[in-house]
Amino acid sequence: MEHARVLRGVAGVAGFLAAAEVVGATGLIDDRFLPRMSTILRGAAELLVDQEFLADARASLAAWGLGLLLTVAVSVPAGLALGALPPVERAVRPLIEFLRPIPSVAIIPLAILIFSDNLHLRVAVIVYAASWPIVINTIYALRDVDPLAKETLRSFGFGPMSVLLRVALPSAAPFIATGIRVAAGTAVILVVSAELLAGGAEGIGIYITEAASGNRMDLMLGAALWAGLFGVLSNTALVAVERRLFRWHDVRTGAAR
Amino acid sequence: MLEITDLVHSYGSHRVLDGVSIRAAEGELVCVVGPSGCGKSTLLRSVAGLIRPTGGRVLIGGQPVDRIPDNLAVVFQDYSRSLYPWMTAANNVALPLRRRGLDRRRRREAATAALDQVGLADAADKYPWEMSGGMQQRVSIARALAYRPSLLLMDEPFGSVDAQTREDLEDLVLRVCAHHGMTTLLITHDIDESVYVGDRVVVLTRSPARVAADLPVGLGDSRDQIATRQLDAFVRLRAEVGRLVRGGSSTSTVLEKH
Amino acid sequence: MNVIRAVGRLWLVPVTLVVWEVATRAAEQPFFPPPSATLARMGEMWLSGPPAHLLLTEQAMDDFGPSLARLFAGWALAAVLGVAAGIAIGCSPRLSGYLDPLIHLGRAVPPPLLVPFFLALLKLSTPAQLTTIVFGIIWPILLNTIDGTRTVDRQHLETARIFGFSTAQRLTRVIVPAAMPKIFAGLRLALSLALILLIIAEILAGSGGLGYRLLTAQRTYLYTDMWGCLVVLGLLGYLLNSAFLLMERRVLAWHRNARQTT
Ligand SMILES: Nc1ncnc2c1ncn2[C@@H]1O[C@H](COP(=O)(O)OP(=O)(O)O)[C@@H](O)[C@H]1O
Ligand SMILES: [Mg+2]
């Protein structure tokens, strides 16, 4: 079964590449704007030895990782605090409900004014925008913790803090992890958006802007392809980590996926 | 009317049905009883054409079942999933009637009539989630009745309702099946129920299922929840079926000596 | 009663506003105008028009009109494409086997990276913006539709087979309604994503609209205007989400109720 699925997937990708190549070969589309598939793939391969691209990719990756780390460090405690203290959560809720719908990329122009350093800018934007899924998932997860489990521990004389640590946190962890996975995807979008909007010296968004002004569509699409592959890999890795850590957790649907 | 001959089915290498033969005459109500997991649903799904059995033959009205027959209806066990929750009771009943070539108004009339027969004339415009489990199962039965099948299949239709509702539904099935003269195959794991409802009781063995016994009930046509269950014949037959379901050998030879 | 309850729930909002107002007045930082100034500027920009136009100014028409049109056009297009393809893929395990890796790759490509490409390919800004939105938001719709279609209750499908539903009936009466809760979840996610992509597309491939206004305000040192845009975008996001929830609640009444009773 698994074998057949992999084969189908490979066939699907091969079919797509071949079809795109054939359409390109018919000359229906001007290949200055949409290069042939083979050209794009060659461009993507060249990028792997292109020092400039590698430096840009590293810079974006660093901003992404740092931003995500900081996001987790800020939003998990915030979510736990709000989830554990319902009165505070009720008071803060209207603010969250107003701030959250602001489209995340809209704060980039403001961030450009505040941060002169490009790394700080990207990290700040990530922390602002990627925190929401983690905070919200953590609040919901804490609210959903089996009251019986909490009561049991309380009846053995454990204080609220150790109930939080021993019952609430472990049973909320899978949902928090889901929130982090969503945040990781959001963070990718914000890094590249910030780079495209704010400019700067290094970053995959900068690389693409330069490729576009040099009319190198092949390099542009090649870079986008690598960004996509990176997204697939990081997501797969996070799912694998979740599976390993939370094997005990029956597959319930999370608050946000 | 229904002839199941040497039916064999395996899921992969796991044999579930091991040569099951059952016959039902026109208008007969046959109960199939067997322990949980013995393959009763598999049997029903083979008869309905939902799965293709590994071996054996099923004839309905002389026609082999090679796809889903159009003169057959099924009432499933789980009431919470047997109706479409996005449709009213009347629409649930009326939708299959399109296949009968009825126009909208006639579909609606047939649905109302069927709902009336199961005592739900007032619930036509209710949604499944506005009804109790027993009511939902009544709607399922009404849907089957309105469809006017010549063969009705029921897979533990009363398995998930409370005892009182269950008795009402048993009487309802007895009444409507007799009224329409439908041939009915009712599957259950409840020994009491099989004896109370059936004209005949077919007992299946533990997996892989075979026919352990095929017993005529002979309690007459009119049955009553209290009086019938107190009859000596009922009590004896129930004990017999119980022994067989638990894997004992038939004691009918002993019974005959009495 | 209601007023008291609302005050009890919302008290932090006025408190925050007052603190913000005081702090910004004290700091006198041009990037952070006081909220009262932002509010006044918003009124001036967008709500000082003639009563016949519901007070909307010409600038309001120029800012909101094109943005909303793009937003809804992109969303509707993605909805039609995503739901149709999702049902087809969800119904066929074979097709989904072929397309799975491509879908996962497509979903992972950050859509803003493609804006320069779409712009070069399509030349015009509106088609490029629409393409960006559609490309960016189709994935949650597609994946949710596939998931919803694939997880239709087996008994619901078997009932359809037993009673001989035609293919069209099976699709419209069983599969689509059963998948509807998941489809709606995807559509709602897509709507908030669409707003994000609209802004980025208008900034990068701009010619009018709220994103463009936001960018020009920032570039021309009109910081109160910029804050006004932020506030109105937040309101817009909130309204869109609420309106969608309202619609969802009506369309999926059966789903909510069915879940409560079982
Ligand atoms: N689709 C299936 N695939 C594999 N095994 C199945 C499937 N359906 C049922 N079985 C197995 O076949 C046996 C009989 O199942 P079933 O016919 O549902 O029994 P019953 O209805 O008597 O409880 C069980 O052991 C069950 O696990
Ligand atoms: Mg069964």
UniProtKB/TrEMBL annotation, chain A:
Keywords: Cell membrane, Membrane, Transmembrane, Transmembrane helix, Transport. It is found in: Cell membrane. The keyword Transmembrane applies. The keyword Ribosomal protein does not apply. GO terms for biological process: transmembrane transport. The chain crosses the membrane at residues 61-86, 98-115, 121-142, 188-208, 220-241. Residues 57-242 form the ABC transmembrane type-1 domain. Belongs to the binding-protein-dependent transport system permease family. This is NitT/TauT family transport system permease protein. It comes from Microbispora rosea.
TrEMBL record, chain B:
The keyword Phosphoprotein does not apply. It comes from the Bacteria. Pfam families: ABC_tran. Signal peptide: none annotated. The keyword Nucleotide-binding applies. Residues 2-231 form the ABC transporter domain. Gene3D superfamilies: P-loop containing nucleotide triphosphate hydrolases. GO terms for molecular function: ATP binding; ATP hydrolysis activity. Keywords: ATP-binding, Nucleotide-binding, Transport. This is NitT/TauT family transport system ATP-binding protein. The lineage of its organism: Bacteria, Bacillati, Actinomycetota, Actinomycetes, Streptosporangiales.
UniProtKB/TrEMBL annotation, chain C:
It is found in: Cell membrane. CDD domains: TM_PBP2. Keywords: Cell membrane, Membrane, Transmembrane, Transmembrane helix, Transport. GO terms for biological process: transmembrane transport. GO terms for cellular component: plasma membrane. It is a multi-pass membrane protein. Gene3D superfamilies: MetI-like. Residues 64-248 form the ABC transmembrane type-1 domain. The chain crosses the membrane at residues 71-90, 128-146, 183-205, 225-247. It comes from the Bacteria. Belongs to the binding-protein-dependent transport system permease family. PANTHER family: ABC TRANSPORTER PERMEASE PROTEIN MJ0413-RELATED, ALKANE SULFONATE ABC TRANSPORTER-RELATED, MEMBRANE SUBUNIT. This is ABC-type nitrate/sulfonate/bicarbonate transport system, permease component.
